[in-house]
Amino acid sequence: MTDQEQQFLYQRVGENIKNARSKANLTQEQLAHAIGLSRASVVNIEKGRQNPSIHQLYSIAEHLEITAHDLLPKIYITEISSYLSDDDLKNVPVDGLNKLASFVLKFKSSQ
User: Fold this and answer.
1) Is there a contact between 82 and 106 (Cβ–Cβ < 8 Å)?
2) Which of 55, 64, 76, 111 matches a 20 to 30 Å C-alpha distance to 88?
3) How much is the pTM?
4) Considering the chain, what is the average pLDDT of its residues?
């Protein structure tokens, strides 16, 4: 994964955390206190400037009453289908899905 792809990934994780925190009606300060981080760290995580560790993702998810999986970015087939034809999608082998996901990440991060 390139540095640009990692940056895009952590920005999306941060956005998901921010959205879930807002939905849970928690402030950054409240979430920070609950997971043992500073408010500044939560701000930086939500902006994608600080990369949370796996245990921090699980702790954040637990306090937001969601799963850690919910915080990870999802690439939906509808996002992909806007770039490829139906025939292209039908011909993507299972082992090619990672390459396809990487392609979409690269494409979206370049926009």
Assistant:
1) no
2) 111
3) 0.69
4) 81
